[in-house]
Amino acid sequence: xxxxxxxxxxxxxxxxxxxxxxxxxxxxxxxxxxxxxxxxxxxxxxxxxxxxxxxxxxxxxxxxxxxxx
Length: 69
Prior knowledge:
Order of helices and strands: EHEH
Radius of gyration: 13 Å
Structural class: alpha+beta
Number of strands: 2
Strand order of the largest sheet: 1-2
Number of domains: 1
């Protein structure tokens, strides 16, 4: 099973997310990717998925409120 592609994490990855979608969340959480190439999908473990998902959910909620949806 592949490992998480977040730097200094050796857990098994069980989720993938688009790199463009999670870059802002990674900066806010002060996390870095161990992959530097032109990869579009990032493999992440359950723990990091939860942390990133919280940021994405918060960002999407603000965006929906801005558009009045």
